[in-house]
User: What shape does this take?
Amino acid sequence: MTLSRLFICLCLTFGLALSAAAQSAFAPIIKVNDRAITQYELDQRILFLTLLRSPGNLEELAEEQLIDDRLRLDAMAAAGIQLTDEQIEGGMAEFAGRANLELEQFVQAIAQGGIDRSTFRDFVRAGLGWRELSRARFAPRAQVTDAEIDRAIKAASSDGGIRVLLNEIILPNTPQTAAQTQRRTEEIQRIEGIPAFQSAARRYSVSGSRSRSGQLDWLPLGNLPPQIRQIVLGLRPGEVSAPIPIPNAVIFFQLRDIEETEAAPVEYAAIEYAAYYIAGGRSAAGLAAADRVRAEVDTCDDLYGVAQGQPEEVLERGALPPAEIPQDIAMELAKLDEGEVSTALTRAGGETLVFLMMCGRTPTLGEEVDRESIRSALFNRRVESFANNYLAELRADAVIEYQ
Assistant: This one.
């Protein structure tokens, strides 16, 4: 064989290999009601989720999201919802703005990570169209009454207060537990009824409330972090919140009851707490060490003696405004009275256990609650709940084929 013929054969072989690889990348790997998902789309979504620092098993999450997107597109088409290019570009710009970037800056940034503009566009299109469909379909059922707003406003008025009775589930979310947590999250989101939630709490939760089936005592609404407060206000008795990500964990709340009280609610200018860090995370050794510390201390001052001779960073103590406290710590502090302890939290990817102690609260006058912001929060939460249930129905009725 001459060199020229050998060169031609090599080119043909290499070209066929590239063509086969390209066909493989764009061949369907999943079909959802005859809508195809390709390997290329899955790879792109994984890259995008990596860029967004999404928790959990990213391959499984990307697959679930792409399946849901196909179901959303089917529902949008059936409802006659068509987005204009201007609407989609506007949605992309809004998303980029969350990262304090202009649209083209964001597109350039994701391109450096190997993510195509069309991937970003498809992601925004499905989410934006679903939002429009959800509002059109469920807005009449999600209307908020003045009485419900009045009840919420009383949380910040001097005429009375609100307290809530919650169940909770806290799932660990570390690299080692990500896949398991994703599966359990999906299971919890399908739960209906208080007994089923409490059963899941006994089986899965790592919170101290696990032995009580996840049941918390009555909590003044003002004790809760502002973000959690709005989520709880949007729940109806028996309803379960969407998963709330916190460092190394995910929290779910279920509302058992809510009631008005005669006592005036209290807002706090600052909350003082101490965090003592114990090596080993939630291992048997780490929890045993926490039990020993608990037996030695009655007040936050006692922790100085426990930490004596250790590196300075093992003990942190301070007083912060509620809005500046990390959400996971703020949620645990909401359950505690002065001198009480929580060991539900971890740091360093689950390798360090947080021995959290409430030192005290400094009260202040609460700010006036805006009626329209309360109305909007309740409305949006209800629309989201209806939409999630609708999507679950679409998935149950769908024909999903893995190629």
